[in-house]
């Protein structure tokens, strides 16, 4: 089984809203043993390319998926290892999640999406913590447990973990 390394971004705006993308199931990671919803919400990000660090991949992917450039980058918050399927192929996914903050109100652009992403990414949305927490009963968010994870980041009073938390979901 090959390993797919990925970088995702926990992007917050000045009001502590989280940017997420609604995607179709096509071509994204589907965890074995869990039925795949037709649509679900993920954090921006994607695969690490040859020669890139995880942070370089996060920066590139955020630009490609949003066009956003005026970003303050923080630490790696979480890591996640999961056996999954990528376009029907069994893989071991190793992901790192980076904290970032948008400096000002910028418009999101789909201009830099790869051709296949235009069909997979349905919409971008900024979610407040309360919206995210109340929507988890009717919406699917990845990584699992995202509202609780985000609460820890927002309640950190400026104190972020010195080492990334390993997610076991």
TrEMBL record:
UniProt keyword Membrane present: no
Assigned keywords, A-Z: Hydrolase, Magnesium
InterPro entries: Nudix_hydrolase, NUDIX_hydrolase-like_dom_sf, NUDIX_hydrolase_CS, NUDIX_hydrolase_dom
Protein name: NUDIX hydrolase
All residue ranges annotated as the Nudix hydrolase domain in the record: 2-151
Classification via PROSITE patterns: NUDIX, NUDIX_BOX
Domain of life assignment: Bacteria
Molecular function terms, GO-annotated: hydrolase activity
Keyword Oxidoreductase: no
Cofactors required: Mg(2+)
Family: Belongs to the Nudix hydrolase family.
């Amino acid at each position: 089984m090959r390993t797919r390394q990925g970088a995702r971004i926990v992007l917050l705006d000045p009001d502590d809203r989280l940017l997420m993308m609604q995607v179709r199931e096509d071509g994204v990671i589907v965890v074995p043993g869990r039925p795949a919803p037709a649509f679900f919400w993920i954090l921006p990000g994607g695969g690490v390319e040859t020669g890139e660090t995880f942070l370089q991949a996060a920066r590139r992917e955020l630009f490609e998926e949003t066009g956003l450039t005026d970003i303050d980058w923080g630490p790696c918050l979480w890591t996640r290892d999961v056996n999954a399927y990528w376009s029907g192929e069994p893989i071991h996914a190793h992901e790192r999640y980076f904290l970032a903050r948008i400096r000002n109100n910028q418009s999101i652009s789909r201009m830099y999406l790869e051709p296949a992403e235009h069909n997979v990414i349905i919409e971008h949305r900024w979610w407040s913590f309360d919206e995210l927490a109340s929507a988890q009963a009717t919406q699917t968010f990845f990584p699992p447990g995202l509202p609780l994870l985000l609460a820890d980041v927002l309640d950190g009073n400026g104190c972020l973990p010195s080492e990334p938390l390993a997610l076991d979901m």
